[in-house]
Amino acid sequence: MAERDSGEALERSSQLLHEITRVEAASRAGDALVVLPVGATEQHGPHLPLGTDLLIVEHIARTAADGVQNGLDVLVTPSLPFGSSHHHLPFGGTVSLSTERYLGALNDMVESLIIDGFRRIFMLNGHGGNHEIIQLVARDLSLRYPANIAAASYWDLAREAMATREPDLPGHFPGHAGFFETSLILALRPELVQSPLPQRSAAELERVAIPETAYRAERHGFWEGIDGHTDSPHAATAEQGRELLDIIVPTVSAAFLEFGKLPLE
């Protein structure tokens, strides 16, 4: 086969790990950044699909990978559809791994990628319950292997850019099944959103408000007390969701590029 220059090869190659052969995976592993999107299957109020976190993070990961320029090869693995979601089990419709098992599963997945030859691995998270766990995996495996490993929730990567929208962004960012996530799903999969969208009065919003503290405060029965969603999604629209994605995706692309260009050991 005639040799192709790197730009042409990247243009013709798939971005999705599960669409290429073992031969191509091996040939790209040494230089590529591989992205592992992690989501959840859990209740998202009475109006959003159980796969909300999965749908959002998978879209962001793939679209952001498409947007990476400057010759960085990015491969995206199949998304992990389950997360650490025991706090949502009382509502039903939730498939969860315990903290210990989720930590072990992610450890095995990332370790597999390292054994495959990948040396740049980025875990992109779409579910709040996974956040600390992916960071532990990145920390621990980077001590054992000569690989660069990153872990981040997409909303943290976009937080600074999102701050410019704070006056027009009602509810919590990112919240859970509130205005923010409802807008994103209306933009991505509107047919999966149930009507009417829940609405809370000002008094109800004050009652369920999550105080900003310098410490993490967990209260037994908290999620049941707010009916499984953090704010009032009634004003969410697909247009707002598209505007939010237009802010989020470029920041994730930039993070992929920045991390992918870091020197290896």
Describe the model.
The protein is an alpha/beta fold and 265 residues long. Strands 2-1-3-4 form a four-stranded parallel beta sheet, sandwiched between helices. Mean pLDDT is 92; it is low at 1-10. It has eleven helices and four strands; from the N terminus they run H-H-E-H-E-H-E-H-E-H-H-H-H-H-H. The radius of gyration is 19 Å and the shape is globular.
A few lines on this structure:
The protein contains 11 helices and 4 strands, in the order ααβαβαβαβαααααα. It has 265 residues and is an alpha/beta fold.
Please state the overall shape, judged from the principal axes of the Cα atoms. Answer: globular
Parts with pLDDT < 50 across at least 5 consecutive residues: 1-10
What proportion of the residues form beta strands (DSSP E)?
5-15%
In helices, the fraction of residues equals 40-55%
User: Taking strands numbered 1, 2, ... along the chain, how are they ordered across the largest sheet?
Assistant: 2-1-3-4
